[in-house]
Specification:
By secondary structure, the protein is an alpha/beta fold. It has nine helices and 16 strands. The chain has a single domain, classed as Acetylglutamate kinase-like (Carbamate kinase), CATH 3.40.1160. It is about 40% helix and about 25% strand. A hairpin with a 5-residue loop joins strand 9 (about 145-150) and strand 10. The protein is globular, with a radius of gyration of 17 Å. The protein binds adenosine-5'-triphosphate (ATP) and magnesium ion (MG).
Length: about 250
């Protein structure tokens, strides 16, 4: 059974944090691990340099056709390539992939009321055969969240949703979301265990907001679909990955 680890842009683009994190992964080499990454803040930064304005709804980016090109360049290009290079330097036999590769995850544009169709996608199919082949061959897959629809156009999938769909499709043993924050917070404290009713109540109350909304919902859907252990947490120090995998730190979703 595989373990899926999703990292946000903050870990992916911080060289010091990343090398500690990759050393943790190299230590767990005999486990079947797949890395999925986001990079939302980095996409926004490049979009703004090009004069595009990033727009969000419920923590999810609305992706114009012009911004889809930025998503491809930043997530599928810069961040994914850089992660593969650094993982290889840490002794991992890394391979870079996106949702379109081998049909890992594909979808349709999301329809959002009152808005023109955009390139933000919703996953309709996940197929993990390519990951099985790579992992069985000893490779370490690093997956970005670009994807495609049936017409050959690009789709931008929220990386939390991509990780959720892959973990469900492969009947994963566990799924860990590593963000720029120690867990799901309330009044500055990490909530150790979070069930569906409480997470929806905290979203309604505005305690859980922004990018944490799609993350807790993806986490909850993974639990509901049978993924063994689902944790949301942060990465600060060498060794943190093992603590997150065992649920000692971070927020465990029930
Ligand atoms: N209750 C909460 N607890 C923790 N974080 C919260 C909460 N409410 C809102 N947030 C925000 O959610 C953010 C994490 O989501 P965000 O989408 O920014 O990062 P990510 O998903 O880890 O990275 P990426 O989007 O690049 O993949 C936190 O940095 C924080 O600002
Ligand atoms: Mg996010």
């Amino acid at each position: 059974m595989m373990i899926f680890i999703k990292i946000g842009g903050t870990v992916a683009t911080n060289p010091a944090l990343l090398s500690a994190f990759l050393a943790d992964l190299a230590f767990l080499k005999d486990r079947k691990i797949v890395l999925v990454h986001g990079g939302g803040k980095e996409v926004t930064a490049v979009s703004e340099k090009l004069g595009l304005t990033a727009e969000f709804r419920d923590g999810i980016r609305l992706t114009s056709p012009a911004e889809m090109e930025v998503v491809d360049m930043v997530l599928g290009g810069k961040i994914n390539i850089d992660l593969v290079r650094r993982a290889r330097a840490s002794g991992l036999d890394a391979v870079g992939l996106g949702g379109q590769d081998g049909g890992l995850f594909t979808g349709v544009p999301r329809t959002i009321q009152g808005l023109a169709p955009n390139r933000t996608g919703q996953v309709t199919q996940a197929r993990t055969r390519l990951l099985d082949v790579l992992v069985a061959g000893g490779f370490f897959p690093i997956v970005n969240s670009t994807s495609t629809d049936g017409s050959g156009q690009g789709l931008n999938i929220n990386a939390d949703e991509a990780a959720q769909e892959l973990a469900i499709a492969s009947r994963a043993e566990s799924l860990v979301f590593i963000s720029d924050i120690a867990g799901v917070l309330k009044n500055g404290n990490v909530i150790a265990r979070l069930d569906e009713q409480t997470l929806e109540a905290e979203i309604a109350a505005g305690v859980i907001a922004g990018g944490m909304v799609p993350k807790v919902r993806s986490a909850r859907q993974a639990v509901a679909a049978g993924v063994g252990k689902v944790v949301i947490g942060g990465y600060q120090n060498p060794g943190d990955l093992v603590k997150l995998l065992s649920g000692i730190t971070g927020t465990t979703i029930l």
